Amino acid sequence: MESGALLVELQRNSTNFAKVVEEIVKMEKKIFPKHESLARSFDEELRKNNSGLLYMTDVHGEVVGYVMYSWPSSLSASITKLAAVKESHRRQGHGEALLKAAIQKCRTRNVHRLALHVDPLRIAAMGLYQKLGFRVDSLIKSYYSADRDANRMYLDFDSN
Ligand SMILES: CC(C)(COP(=O)(O)OP(=O)(O)OC[C@H]1O[C@@H](n2cnc3c(N)ncnc32)[C@H](O)[C@@H]1OP(=O)(O)O)[C@@H](O)C(=O)NCCC(=O)NCCS
User: Fold this and answer.
1) pLDDT tens digits for 46-81?
2) What does pTM read for this prediction?
3) Secondary structure (DSSP) of the chain
4) What are the residue boundaries of the N-acetyltransferase domain, all occurrences included (predicted)?
5) Is 72 in the pocket of ligand 1 (CB under 6 A)?
6) CB of 124 shorter than 6 A to ligand 1
7) Which domains can be identified in the chain, with CATH numbers?
8) Is residue 100 within 6 Å of ligand 1 at its C-beta?
9) Minimum-distance ligand 1 atom for the alpha carbon of 131
């Protein structure tokens, strides 16, 4: 991670909440195609109980990446949206730092499994998930759209 980068948990009552959400929604629109984007449902996602969002800022306080996660039951948690790291800030360890922090947050919820979906054509994301120990469970055809599939991946936590 570049020096000066900060990893922060988004708090609804923080003074910069609206500004941070605005920056994230902008990134979401830029990085993801419409059918994969949470831009329009972002606020709704954030209001869900048992969900959280971590974001990273650079030395100038600009948001450069984020990850969203949730733990709907005591059985499993999911990465709702990884991370998006701004193109200009990629390959500097930000994605890995964000994902590791989200894994840690989910781990403290005492769930057994952390799951996510990713388009297998997203080489960087697949590499990152595999590096942190996620395994492919199955391929779900037409998950994102008629011609875009998803790998369902999981990471099991130790029971001790
Ligand atoms: C996936 C993404 C978050 C990675 O962020 P990043 O900050 O560039 O990644 P990091 O520098 O932390 O890299 C960590 C690991 O990810 C993998 N990785 C990252 N970029 C990669 C690339 N271009 N090709 C292959 N593997 C890659 C590597 O395993 C890397 O470890 P290494 O540096 O030891 O080789 C970023 O590419 C991104 O935002 N992509 C667009 C959005 C996206 O696809 N999100 C996932 C949706 S499910």
Assistant:
1) 888 889 999 999 999 999 999 999 998 878 899 987
2) 0.94
3) --TT-EEEE--TTSTTHHHHHHHHHHHHHHHS-GGG--GGGHHHHHHSTTEEEEEEE-TTS-EEEEEEEE--SSSEEEEEEEEEE-GGGTTSSHHHHHHHHHHHHHHTTT-SEEEEEE-TT-HHHHHHHHHTT-EEEEEEEEEEETTEEEEEEEEEPP--
4) 8-158
5) no
6) yes
7) 6-156 (3.40.630.30)
8) no
9) 29
